[in-house]
Amino acid sequence: MNKYYHIATYGCQMNVHDSEKIAGILEQKGYKASKIEDADIIVFNTCCIRETAEKKIFGNIGDIKRLKKQNPSIIVAVVGCMSQQQGMQELLKKRFPFIDIIMGTTNYHKISQAIDHVLLIKHYYGSVVYEEKPEIIEDVPIYRTSGVNAWVNIMYGCNNFCAYCIVPYVRGRERSREPQKVLDEIKSLLDKDYKEITLLGQNVNSYCNDMDNGWSFARLLENIAKIKGKFRLRFMTSHPKDFNKEIVDIIASSPNICNHIHLPVQSGSNRILKLMNRKYTREHYLEIIDHIKTIPGVGITSDIMVGFPTETDQDFEDTLSLVKQVRYSNAFTFVYSPRKGTPAAEMEQIPASIKKQRITKLVALQNKITREISQEYIGLTKEVLVEDINPKFENTLCGRTESGRLVNFEGNKSLIGQFVDIKILKAKSASLWGERQ
Ligand code: SF4
């Protein structure tokens, strides 16, 4: 008899890729993906980066009570960042006694044993908590769902302890994968005809800092760029304190490495950067940006936060002036939300009304810059890697330029996975529209 699973994924690309690994394990066990109502196993791969994410996940887990009542043999598993938080396992079990398995960020690869346990003993598997320096598990089967792009972990965890961020507490210290393992995985993905590889890590620029093997992120990029064949290489996320000129020069001279750099700044104020424990200054950040701008046609994007504790009008003005100076092609802008257990949650908070005013102002500024940069594309012909059909419009495909811009154009879905030249005819805010050449 067929058995089915459903994975609900929340949060960042790291979680999306973890879910691909969980799916790989479940497929290997003979389960098939399905809608949540038809699943024998429901996995919540959770995120705790913001309070809103957590509330949503609690609501969605609560909704499962009805399904579990109808069919008590459904297995419910909660994995990922949220369940890794201190005290969360107890809270989850108290609020949702129907949960069968709770696992963290470093041991979801054991989900197969956990399921066997529940099936055999018909009993709660329990929670598997955080290990301080867990080993990297290689050769986990991966069921990839990301189309033409393949995610590749190069490292796990983070050592930075930014004052607002929960990640180092739930994902542990930095652990890099062996360079040869990364290179072998990329070669095998390219052999399988993936056209784009995205390297993943909380701070990819500190790759191999935890190993005494002479490797660095720059050396890894250089070696990947030498692999034969046409493909695109992207990476995320970078940290300004570890991003250097050597990385910029390798990107500029390697046709396979995309000219799109996502470099989160978070704030333009030195006072706030210091409180955030970001370990760089506005001046240092802008110096790197000047180097990055030497890469022809580069698209620069960022994460920018408003409303960090004690942020003054002047601090916020510093952020606005930095945004004007850098001119990001796009930015993920968000309001600070306190995370229990982080130093910033204990600092003096600022009123929600001020945060709201500031985010509105920042979004308006960034949208204006994004629109202006989009206009500069009109009339240019750009190579686009076709990713998918655009479901909102008939006969329309979408893909990205090397610089990360979304481009829509008319075409047949047989073009998905191909590189095509598109002449840009119009721009709508962040997205571009064009025709095939
Ligand atoms: S670098 Fe800072 S923001 Fe990024 S994951 Fe690490 S602690 Fe969090």
Tell me about the biggest sheet?
A: 6 strands, parallel
Bound molecules: iron/sulfur cluster
Helix content: 25-40%
Helical stretch count? 13
Please report which band the strand proportion falls in: under 5%, 5-15%, 15-25%, 25-35%, 35-45% or over 45%.
15-25%
Task: Compute the average pLDDT.
Answer: 94
Shape: globular
Number of strand elements: 19
Query: How many independent structural domains?
Result: 4
Give me the CATH superfamily of the largest domain.
Methylthiotransferase, N-terminal domain
Major sheet: arrangement of strands: 2-1-3-4-5-6
Question: Which features would summarize this protein structure in a list?
Answer:
single chain; 437 residues; alpha/beta; Rossmann fold; Transcription Regulator spoIIAA; 4 domains; 6-stranded parallel β-sheet; 5-stranded mixed β-barrel; 13 helices; 19 strands; 23% strand; globular; binds iron/sulfur cluster
Note down, in words, how this protein is organized.
With 437 residues, the chain is of the alpha/beta class. The chain has four domains: 3-128, 3-Layer(aba) Sandwich (Rossmann fold); 146-258, Transcription Regulator spoIIAA (2-Layer Sandwich), CATH 3.30.750.210; 283-375, Transcription Regulator spoIIAA (2-Layer Sandwich); 378-436, OB fold (Dihydrolipoamide Acetyltransferase, E2P) (Beta Barrel). Helices cover 35% and strands 23% of the residues. The strands form five sheets. It has a six-stranded parallel sheet, sandwiched between helices. The chain is globular and about 65 Å long. The N and C termini lie far apart (50 Å). Bound molecules: iron/sulfur cluster (SF4). Iron/sulfur cluster (SF4) binds at residues 158, 160-162, 165, 167-168, 202-203, 239. The site of iron/sulfur cluster (SF4) has 10 residues, from α6.
